[in-house]
Amino acid sequence: MAKERIIVTLQGDDYDLIPARAAARLAARFDATLDAVLLEPDPSDFMMWAGPSGAAASVMAGALSSIQTESNKSAENAKNTFIDALEYAELTAVRGRFLRISDQPADAAAETRLSRLVVTSHYAASGNGPLADLVTAILIDEQTPIYICRETDELPQSVAIAWDGSREAARAIYAGAPLIASAQEVRILQSERGLEYRDRRAASIDRLFDWLSVRGKRSDMINLDQYEGSVGERLLQGSEGHDLLVAGAYGHSRLREFVFGGVTRTLLSASDGPAMLLAH
Known about the structure:
This protein is globular. The relative contact order is 0.14. Strands 3-2-1-4-5-12-9-6-7-8 form a ten-stranded mixed β-sheet, sandwiched between helices. It has a two-stranded antiparallel ribbon with strand order 10-11. Helix content is 39%, strand content 21%. The two termini are 29 Å apart. With 280 residues, the chain is of the alpha/beta class. The chain has helices spanning 17-30, 54-88, 105-108, 122-125, 132-141, 167-175, 177-182, 205-214, 231-238, 262-269; strands at 4-10, 32-40, 97-102, 117-121, 146-149, 158-162, 185-190, 220-223, 244-248, 251-252, 259-260, 275-279.
């Protein structure tokens, strides 16, 4: 019986392929069930006061019919991609559910509660397309960790961990523990210059070394202060050549805008780099 639950967000187009396949591989690694969530536009969002005339009502009915037709097409594409991904990863026995949700992003994000992590595309995580607000709500409001794919669905063989002793970083590490434990190479990234005095005890490298050693892992450590640029830029430099960056995410979603702190925003806006596992 699967012990965990992983969710993949889908939008019904070509951006779904890599996240769906990566999520299927992750489900096998985590011994997890895999569910897919497709967030559709709520038809009521398109309703407007059209007056009492029959012509206006007819126009509105036609518009809603077109919207429903496109939604059905996207849902069919997303469902087929999900089924193909399960077969691709030989997970046909996994109890996968395809969830088609018409709701506001913040409400749909509640579906991710009790999940180990949510898999999404870099396109969505960087604030693009129909899933941008949903991904924000999942990470910031629900505080469910997200795994952000890049150009491959392969599981990471090398992992870089951004460690500042924060709760966010610790949650990200716990969420990715099976990936860290199976990695061939682990690197710890830290900026001593960026730590406040009161954070230094929590950010002790020995604490993370001990956590890794219990899992049979050894790691090297890179001081990010040797690089130039912002903290986000230095994290990208320190994780260069690694398949996955595990880090805490910071920010808020005021007015449902895609708003993150500077470090997280830099990581998400980078055009290349490792896959990321972020937690808030």
